[in-house]
Every structure is written in structure tokens, then in C-alpha cells.
């Protein structure tokens, strides 16, 4: 997996030299305001990124977290759309804030022949310019396409209705990809799951995280929601803010969808995806697997078979598996399992 943290550290050092240092207590106060808004503990202030102290705190705290989520998605995209992604692309970062997704794309190694950053908050675009240089077109709304990649990172949650995002999809080249990242809450994730089903009915392909299934099987299970929870090593200053506000960011949590009309998808690369944690208890381990069709498979294995099924026992949420042998029941020593 690409680790953006070293590049982010360097970038933030340059940014702080240009913008001036900030006292940690100011950052913590502003992160608390943002965090309360994002967690629904206080109303979202329209245009909150126009306020300098909130914008600065966003760059210090949320930008590294969100950029690393985008990098993980790009790593996965490289598995099924590598040659496409390594080309020189027309890219739109919609609801860019301080340019988080565009920055992640660049630090990840992506190249753009056209890079557009769109945000209703003018000052957010200024911040993006401080980070990315004057290397992009600025826009308040999405301009006409076509685009090869459209990022929408943590913006549907603010639009409220995913339908408002749909005109954007018309700006996507048929072989291109829309990368939608959302907070990992049940509410946001389930809204994304419903929207994905509507889009599939209308001919869109979900390149990831799904493996080609027509209807999200988790929608029938009200206590589950599709989200990722991946280990990472946060930069020191994020740890320091977390310590001071009493939060922990040992993992990156998010929901996401990668949509395409005609592009390649993850479906060819695996049989099943782990869509829960691997639970271990009383001589067994189990996890929910999502495949190419049908319901989720609650796959169980006995600890005594852990040598034959070692790749299953090593799995974590989001991992991809090849499984030879009957699906639906218990995994046994006759199954052949490979973690991709
Ligand atoms: C939570 S921030 C996400 C910023 C960045 N994409 C990230 O992931 O870190 C949401 C951004 O969406 C922008 N936004 C909200 N409504 C918008 C709209 N209708 N059109 C464009 N941008 C919008 C906000 O100004 C804000 O910058």
C-alpha cells in the first residue's frame, strides 16, 4: 500500500513555513468545532471553510486522513485499472475543500493533463493553491467534461441527496471512474448502498468495493453497513491532536464507491470480499463475505483447520479472496483459499 504520510509531512512543513505556525490549542479548538459538525453534534455552518481558523484546522487534521483514504482507493484501482490510471488523465476534484483528493492523486503518482478543483467556497480553493501551486483550473461548479476521474470526497454527505451528484456523472468519459468517498457512519454508508443499487439498475458498473453483484446484499441486513477500516500510521501531529481531544485514529474508516460505465472492475480479480471483521471465538473464526451474486456468505472455519485455511485466518475487513470449493457453508480443509 502506498504510504502518503512521508510526502504529507514534507508538504505540511513547506505549507507551515509559508502560512506561519499555529498554536496547537487553536488547532484543537477548531478541530473540535469541525468534528462536532461532522458528527452531527452541532449544525453544519454553511461555507464553514471560508473561516480561516476552521480551514487551517481542516488542513492540519482532516486533509491527511482523507488523502490517505483516497490513496488506498487508488492503490486498489491500480489492480484493475492500472494502465488507465497510469496514463495522463483529465481529473475533477469536486467539493475539493483544500484540494484533498487532487493532492492525494498527485502524491500517489497520478498525472493530469487537466486538473479542475471545484468548491462553492472560494477560500478553500485558495488553500488548495497554497498546497498544490497554481496548477489547476478553479471552479465554483463542475465545468463541462469529459473527465477520466472525478473525485467526490466527503461531499455527498453535505449535498444530502446523492441525486444532486448525478449530473456530474454525465461528465465522466465512458471508460472513466467516479471515486466517491464518504464518512463510515451507518447513515452515510447505507445511503451510498441504496444509491449504488439505483445506479446499477441504470447501467452503471460498480468497479469497487463490490465484485459485480447487481443488488447490495447488505441492504437486507439493517445492522450492517458497508465500510472500510484499515490500519495506518498517522503523522505525529495528527496523533497529538487526537491525544488532546481524546480521539483515536489507529485505523482509517470510510465508505466508498468507484463507478464506471465501461471501465474495468475489481470483479475479475477475486471471488469474495470480506465485508466484516474476522471474528474469533470459541474454536472458530467467521466473517461475512460478499461475492459476485446472491446473499452474503457467513463463512465460518474451525481453528483446528487454521493451517489449511491460513489465508482466511489472516484476513481482515476489505480483503479479497479466491476460494475453491463450495460456497455458503462452513469452510473446511478441502477448500483452497488465497488472499489476493
Ligand atoms: C467535508 S469537506 C470535504 C473536502 C475534501 N473533499 C476532503 O475530502 O477533505 C466538503 C466540501 O464540499 C464543499 N461543498 C459543499 N457543497 C458543495 C456544492 N454544492 N458544490 C461544491 N462543493 C460543495 C464544501 O465547501 C467543502 O469544501
3D structure, described in words:
The protein is an alpha/beta fold. It folds into two domains: 5-261, Rossmann fold (3-Layer(aba) Sandwich), CATH 3.40.50; 270-339, OB fold (Dihydrolipoamide Acetyltransferase, E2P). 36% of the residues lie in helices and 24% in strands. Strands 1, 2, 3, 4, 5, 6, 7 and 8 form an eight-stranded mixed sheet that branches. Strands 9, 10, 11, 12, 13 and 14 form a six-stranded antiparallel sheet that branches. Helix 4 links the parallel strand 1 (88-94) and strand 2 (111-118). It is globular. The protein starts with a helix and ends with a strand. The site of S-adenosylmethionine has 19 residues, from helix 3, helix 4 and helix 6.
Give the arrangement of secondary structure elements.
Blueprint: H1 5-19, H2 24-38, H3 52-85, E1 88-94, H4 100-108, E2 111-118, H5 122-132, E3 137-139, E4 147-153, H6 156-159, H7 166-169, E5 172-182, H8 186-201, E6 205-208, E7 228-231, H9 236-245, E8 251-260, E9 272-274, E10 279-281, E11 284-290, E12 297-302, H10 310-313, E13 320-324, E14 336-339
Parallel strand pairs: 1-2, 1-4, 2-3, 4-5
Antiparallel strand pairs: 5-8, 6-8, 7-8, 9-11, 9-13, 10-11, 11-12, 13-14
S-adenosylmethionine is lined by residues 49, 62-63, 66, 95-97, 100-101, 118-121, 124, 153-155, 158-159.
Amino acid at each position: 500500500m502506498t504510504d502518503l504520510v512521508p510526502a504529507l509531512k514534507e508538504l505540511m512543513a513547506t505549507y507551515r513555513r509559508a502560512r506561519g505556525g499555529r498554536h496547537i490549542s487553536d488547532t484543537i479548538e477548531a478541530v473540535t468545532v469541525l468534528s462536532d459538525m461532522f458528527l452531527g453534534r452541532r449544525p453544519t455552518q454553511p461555507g464553514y471553510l471560508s473561516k480561516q481558523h476552521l480551514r487551517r484546522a481542516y488542513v492540519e487534521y482532516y486533509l491527511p486522513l482523507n488523502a490517505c483514504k483516497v490513496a488506498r482507493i487508488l492503490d486498489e484501482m491500480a489492480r484493475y485499472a492500472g494502465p488507465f490510471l497510469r496514463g495522463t488523465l483529465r481529473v475533477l476534484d469536486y467539493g475539493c475543500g483544500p484540494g484533498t483528493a487532487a493532492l492525494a492523486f498527485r502524491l500517489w503518482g497520478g498525472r493530469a493533463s487537466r486538473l479542475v478543483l471545484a468548491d462553492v467556497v472560494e477560500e478553500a480553493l485558495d488553500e488548495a493553491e497554497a498546497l498544490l501551486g497554481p496548477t489547476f483550473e478553479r471552479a465554483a461548479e463542475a465545468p463541462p467534461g469529459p473527465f477520466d476521474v472525478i473525485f467526490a470526497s466527503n461531499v455527498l454527505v453535505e449535498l444530502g441527496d446523492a441525486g444532486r451528484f448525478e449530473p456530474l456523472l454525465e461528465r465522466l468519459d465512458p471508460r472513466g471512474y467516479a471515486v466517491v468517498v464518504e464518512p463510515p457512519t451507518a447513515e452515510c454508508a447505507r445511503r451510498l448502498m441504496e444509491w449504488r443499487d439505483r445506479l446499477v439498475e441504470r447501467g452503471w458498473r460498480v468497479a469497487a468495493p463490490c465484485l459485480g453483484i447487481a443488488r447490495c446484499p447488505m441492504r437486507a441486513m439493517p445492522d450492517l453497513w458497508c465500510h472500510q477500516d484499515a490500519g495506518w500510521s498517522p503523522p505525529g501531529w495528527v496523533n497529538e491532536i487526537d491525544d488532546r481531544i481524546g480521539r483515536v485514529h489507529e485505523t482509517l474508516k470510510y465508505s466508498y464507491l468507484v463507478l464506471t460505465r465501461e471501465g474495468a472492475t475489481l470483479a475479475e480479480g477475486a471471488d469474495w470480499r470480506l465485508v466484516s471483521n474476522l471474528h474469533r471465538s470459541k474454536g472458530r473464526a467467521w466473517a461475512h463475505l460478499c461475492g459476485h451474486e446472491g446473499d452474503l456468505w457467513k463463512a465460518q472455519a474451525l481453528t483446528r483447520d487454521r493451517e489449511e485455511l491460513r489465508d482466511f485466518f489472516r484476513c481482515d475487513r476489505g480483503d479479497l479472496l479466491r476460494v475453491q470449493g463450495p460456497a455458503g457453508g462452513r469452510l473446511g480443509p478441502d477448500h483452497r483459499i488465497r488472499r489476493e
